[in-house]
Design a protein that fits this description.
Strand order of the largest sheet: 6-3-5-4-8-9
Number of helices: 7
Largest sheet: 6 strands, mixed
Number of domains: 1
Distance between the termini: 34 Å
Oligomer: single chain
CATH architecture: Alpha-Beta Complex
Radius of gyration: 16 Å
Strand content: 15-25%
CATH superfamily: DHBP synthase
Helix content: 25-40%
Length: about 200
């Protein structure tokens, strides 16, 4: 964990477990690191990246929360509920914040993911649902296979910046449920692990 935090503080990227699958992550305030995640994910810049934070208090440093949003957060966090919230701080890297000045964020149900964020003192990027868009990775062997069996020279260049955190094989689960509160009502953007 100490090695990983030093790596993240130096702009490195980690592959780590969330409560639903492995994710590619980095310091959400480091633009170069976030750009690397977009390359590794092969994600178009028009799509944003969600975040995992250590606690509700940490999220409040970066996002505005209504009473309804805070009530929902206290009910389901830590857990596989991602909320789309209005940004309150300009500290987050480009690519994370949407055009409407919102960000997708959650307090993970995975203790290792929360500990990464806590020790870093910042939210960390959590690529949505999977590493690469072609299915989820639930074990480190699947992660290694993904990164070891590619023909993209861009990925060869970024692998040196990659460290993997293993906590054992994950149970196969649905991705997080994504919600946004609009006019006081919960709008489900993606139905996943948590039923609301």
């Amino acid at each position: 964990m100490i090695k990983l935090i030093e790596h993240l503080k130096n702009g490195g990227v980690v592959v780590y477990q969330t409560e639903t699958a492995y994710a590619i992550g980095c310091d959400a305030t480091n633009q170069k690191a976030v750009d690397l995640v977009f390359i590794m994910k092969k994600r178009l810049k028009k799509y944003t990246l969600p975040l995992i934070a250590e606690s509700l208090d940490m999220i409040k440093k970066f996002c505005q929360m209504s009473d309804a949003e805070e009530h929902l957060a206290k009910k389901y966090w830590p857990g596989a509920l991602t909320m789309v919230l209005k940004v309150a701080s300009n500290q987050l890297a480009k690519g994370i914040v949407a055009k409407d000045e919102t960000v997708a964020v959650r307090v993970s149900g995975n203790k290792m993911a929360r500990e990464l964020s806590r020790r870093l003192g910042q939210p960390i990027v959590s690529t949505s649902a999977n590493l690469h868009g072609n299915g989820e990775c639930y074990s480190l062997s699947e992660v290694r296979k993904h990164f070891g069996c590619h023909s993209d020279p861009a990925l060869d260049a970024v692998e040196e910046s990659l460290v993997m955190l293993d906590g054992g094989v994950l149970e196969k689960r649905k991705p997080s449920t994504i919600v946004k509160i609009v006019n006081g009502k919960i709008k489900i953007l993606r139905q996943g692990e948590i039923k609301i």
